[in-house]
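To assess whether ligand presence alters the predicted conformation, the chain was also submitted together with inosinic acid. Input:
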Amino acid sequence: MGVDVLVGLQWGDEGKGKIVDLIANKYDVVARFQGGPNAGHTLIVEGKKYVLHTIPSGIIHANTINVVGAGTVIDPTVLVKELEMLHSAGISTENRLIISDKAHLILPTHKLLDEYYEKQKGEAKIGSTLRGIGPAYQDKYARTGLRMHHIHSGSFKSDYEALKKLHLVLLSSLGYEQNEEFKGIEEAWLNAIDQIRNIECSAIENYLNNLLDKGGNVLAEGAQGTLLDISFGSYPFVTSSNTSSASACIGLGVAPQRIKKVIGVYKAYLTRVGSGPFPTELDNEIGRTLMTFGNEYGATTGRERRCGWLDLPLLKQTVVQNGVTDLVITKSDVLTCLETFKAMDVSGKLQEFNSWEENISSVRDYSHLPQNLKLYLGFIESELALKNTMISTGPGRDEIIMC
Ligand code: IMP
């Protein structure tokens, strides 16, 4: 009993959503602790695809409570769309969703600031998802932000207008002129605020600590990946939150002693969306083959993901930093699109492997995997000195091998 944390060990898009969905029913609560709607967690359940940006992936399981933590930033417009998507799929969120009163709000002007900061950077742009994440965290740390509890106060409208005014001064110095389009966006945002007032908004740190004291268990669901961590990633080509396991404590208000397992998810190759260094990148036909077969397009922005070989020096670093206890590999099935493939070993040398022809999506037993894949998995495990506890063999919920 306690908190298990699940994190991405690369640049995001490791397939965390599927793994959370797979294990969520073992937990009383699934909680998001950082990030915002820059995340896109894709789940495929009984052939139906769900993409979640704000709400934890546990929402698909009827008996799981879902918490959005204090370390997150929330765009009400995106949240409302997500609720509508779930409701139209017959998934009830009533009494199953609690948002921290301390989570920060993303304003329409935060998104504009994101766009204008990126424009100003020119060639040096970060490749942000432009969801207003960075500017919302900027206001959090400048102590000028609006939090979820503000929407329940009588002064919300004037608080909003004051912050908007500040943003517009900044935006006009960056070349932005307010227009009719903004009015429409703002109206939709204010409508969304009205709709999310019905969602339970409270001190989730008390709720979670009480639950844990009574023997309950929580799965903390990370967003993005460790290589995008604001402190330890390839700054400035990072996101604006701490994405590693320790961030679960800060984002949920639980002590480090509560953490039990750290589940680290990584892909059999490597992808990155947006700008920044990528030592094993394949800016060639092989990279494009991986992109096509691996369906490597951003769940949030639809952008093409840059593809490359598995980078074990980086993976080793993130395994150590997160204190991974349980390793999960995803998308090894995609490697069948190549006859041979490579991975960078911990000493920085590229090693070559032979692929296999068998379709592994229906394999449920490790011993039935192709020999060449077993060799690759063994190589990774010896480089990391850690065993894989799950091997994902396809996008569906049941396409998994428990080791
Ligand atoms: P931002 O957090 O939207 O400003 O984006 C900063 C960087 O992180 C960009 O390179 C994005 O592509 C990347 N990024 C943000 N969220 C995700 C994610 O969920 N998956 C993968 N990359 C992400």
